[in-house]
Amino acid sequence: MFQNRTRFRSIAATLIQRIVLLAGACLAAMLALQGFLTYRETQHRMDHALAEIAENSLPMLSISLWDIEPEVVQRQVNWLASLPEIGRVRVLASTGQTFEAGALAIDLPGPALRSLEIQAPQGSKPVGRLELWIEPGYQAAQVAHDTLGIVTGYVLFTGLLCLLVGWMLRRDLQRPMQEIARFAAELKPQELSRPLKLERPPRDHQDEIDLVTQGFTQLQSDLRSHIANLDHLVAERTQQLEKLIEEVHRLSITDALTGCFNRRVIEERLPAEIERARRYGRALSVIFADIDHFKAINDQLGHAAGDAVLRDVGALLLGQVRTPVDWVARYGGEEFLIVLPESDLVHASQAAHRLREMIEAQPLHVEGRLLPLTASFGVAQCGPDEGVADLLARADAMLYHAKSEGRNRVEVSG
Ligand SMILES: Nc1nc2c(ncn2[C@@H]2O[C@H](COP(=O)(O)OP(=O)(O)OP(=O)(O)O)[C@@H](O)[C@H]2O)c(=O)[nH]1
User: Which H or E run contains 201?
Assistant: First the structure.
């Protein structure tokens, strides 16, 4: 799921391994302790059994030895040796006779575990001595038997406990943690609203996994609002940028003084207009307008006054054309070009006359003075195969003609 240099192992698996190791160590310690205690208890039990056997055997042995009946004594010794707890039996009679029986060699086990005086029946004097050795195999078997029973219980209990703890760790820790990790790894930025839902048994309390889940949900919500803020910011910035681009574009095609289009628009837009008019068989005309004696205004009233005149004439022209079909551009100096798509020579000529009359009829207010103003116009309609340069040259020739004919005139290229 995750790319990492170190090997992955779940917390639950580590905890289960540690619990099993700890349980093993505890089991071993319990085993040793239980073995020791069982050994002690078995020894005590054997001692007690031995003492009982010896006490019970003494009267019979006393009679047999007093009556000097060796066969009976030997039979009794044999019977004692046949008891499972007894490894070896020896009776030393005061007459010097020895009676022995048992599987255990006498020199192996060391001194007798129990050695008792056998008194004569009347109890006046001893008639012999009874020595008993325990059967080590029997004791070991007893220890093993008792220990095994208890240890089997321990092992079963510990194993069961480990299984239970392992199952709970997997259910309560491993599975939810894996679900959280899988959810986090597969979560896409556009899915931040998808809630993290864990399948957990009902509880009356919260735990660390609930805290992680809540933290994750909080993180998702924070990320969502952060992304929403960013989106909003991007949209706002994009809008500002679009406005700026629009403004930059407007400035790049606008003459700063008059607000008309600049020369660049003439170069870019006029050829396209002519092409469109030709393709659809429509008329297109242009008008050159040039303020008369503008140099005199500059010279007499100053350059600022000249600028004001240019601004006012530009505004007047812009106000009179049929925008956005017709458009006005400052050609240079005090000369304007008015482009009239969809207009033939008659309409263009009428428009030029109307403009001329308006300029003449509205003397401009410049620096508190009323300034009479006229302009000359040259009009031309685009011919069937005519290009931009030829069309402008013809209109310009008409303007030149109007100037030479006395100004404040409209000359139309026939
Ligand atoms: N104030 C101002 N003057 C300008 C600007 N551009 C050109 N001019 C001036 O406009 C004047 C044009 O003079 P001319 O070409 O002789 O034209 P005119 O005086 O109008 O004479 P005619 O056109 O023959 O009537 C020049 O003096 C230029 O310096 C401008 O942006 N502002």
Answer: none
